[in-house]
Fold beta-glucosidase.
Amino acid sequence: MIPVPRRRIAGPPSLALLLVALVGLVAPPAAAAATYPYQDPTLPVPNRVADLLSRMTLDEKIGQMTQAERGSVTAADLTTYRLGSILSGGGSAPSPNNATSWADMYDAFQRGALATPLAIPMIYGMDAVHGHNNVVGATIFPHNIGLGATRDPALVQQIGQAVAEEVSGTGVDWDFAPCLCVARNDRWGRTYESFGETPDIPSDLTTVITGLQGPSLGGPTSVLATAKHYLGDGGTTGGDDQGNTELSEAELRAIHLPPFQAAVQRGVGSVMISYSSWNGVKMHGHQYLISTVLKGELGFSGFVVSDWNGIDQIDGSPGFTAAEVAAAVNAGIDMVMVPTAWKTFISTLRAEVQNGHIPLSRIDDANRRILTKKFELGLFERPFTDRSWTPTVGSAAHRALARQAVRQSQVLLKNAGGVLPLARDNNKIFVAGKNADNIGNQSGGWTISWQGSSGNITPGTTILQGIRAAVGPGTTVTYNQRGTGIDGSYRAAIAVVGETPYAEGQGDRTGSMSLDRDDLRTISTLRKVGVPVIVVLVSGRPLDIAAELPGWDALLASWLPGTEGAGVADVLFGVTAPTGTLPMTWMNSVSQQPINAGDGQVPLFPQGYGLTY
Ligand code: GLC
């Protein structure tokens, strides 16, 4: 079968191609005649799956259940080992890191997969959790905590669609997003990946799944979405990443399950298992929650993927054993993310089937689930990148959408004397703070690299650049990171402070959750000259600022806005009034953590709080 460029139906064929085709120089690739039923797109998917499955060897079935990291495989390995999936871990990118290189890389791996006897296309997964964030030049949207502050399902669906276009333009067809975690303790390093501390907000914002996948799989930019991390990742004791969620089943179901129910109802194609445990039992081996509840009770018909080396954690010792492979697959995990040890996994899984520890019926069920999604995505007919979407990466239209999302995500928490909005004309403004002119800091983790990093890491507009662009010619804007040089002639000072990038457990804060010394010193420098001080907090979570707040004239929670920092300036100058409301309760003191709506504690600001002009 001769695969044709994927999603060739997407955009109108280019004029050049039409002209060339018309003169017969290059006939558009004709769809090859189907040799086997599974290759016939006119047949119902279940029939195609059944036919294909009947032709597969055990090794081909095991290959479909194996996901390896791009850095530890070659295209030839996909052919030899029949690998069904490749992933990019956070920051794992081709060089040069640009959209075209990604598409070239994807197509090369795909050619390796199609060079197998049954030509089963591979599916490529990565974390596009706030835009196509591994790719330099991509549009970086606000992280989920900011989107939660918008309470706008339609906006979030639009963002999903935009991300799907950029992801499709690089060939990638599977997004390990959205995180539907319900973050209950702000100490957790993944709090910013949560849409909110109560299940209603992430449930409402599962519209991002429809944006990513389309109304059904197989559309021109349809990308398989992933509801993650199942189940209870945001509920661990102490906010300990990959820790233990100690709840009754009734509490677990009430707090953490609803977003997954909503995702399944929206037809989410995959679910990723959490590293965390429930009452001491690792989720990666939890047959009741994975098979009985998720697949049985909720009726999830997609496929379940493990997290990065997640099966290694089942017995608490490093690496995975045959027993862990059997426990994970028998629990209901269909595809195993084994980034580097994928050859060992393949031989171990084969042995566990041959010795009867894993029934062939479980292998066939896993393959049916995986292959069904590959057929529904259209991968068999359009396995290669549709390059007509590549120019959408970082496009002006997507950046405009991101800027709108930044505006709507801003939460105004204090505005003494109506110091905001600032006048755009005939003003004199001093800007300070480590997060004022730093694309890396305002984007946070999962940006270009796994942990993210400070600095000019990708094209975008810093908050300071947004401020400068917003003001009229008669206004002076002075910037100094530490506030050095400010005097009483300024009409206002803006301190853009908060956190620097982190991801996952490296972001867990077990001690203080206050501003760091540099930020406090900067704000103090500004306050000394007696001008109004507006604090803009760029952080992945609420911070412990109650003691300092009385000395601030205004406080704007900006969260992690991404590349379009001008959206923050739009609110500071009243281009748009702030409309965001807190998705998380804001502590009065770190000693209150965890603090959540309805727990009886008195917060500094309750969930749902937000001022406007
Ligand atoms: C990580 C994360 C998960 C991500 C996966 C692949 O450890 O827990 O959210 O999708 O690995 O990068």
About this structure: Residues 1-14, 16-31 have pLDDT under 50 and may be disordered. The chain has three domains: 14-43, 49-392, 410-592.
